[in-house]
Amino acid sequence: MKIANQVLFAVACVMAAASVLLAAYVAHLGADLPAPALRSVQSALQLQQFHSLALLLVAWMGMGPRSHPLHMGSGLMFLLGLLMFSVNIELIHLAGVDMFRAFTPYGGLAFVAGWLLLIGALRAKS
Question: What pLDDT score was predicted for residue 31?
Answer without folding.
Answer: 80
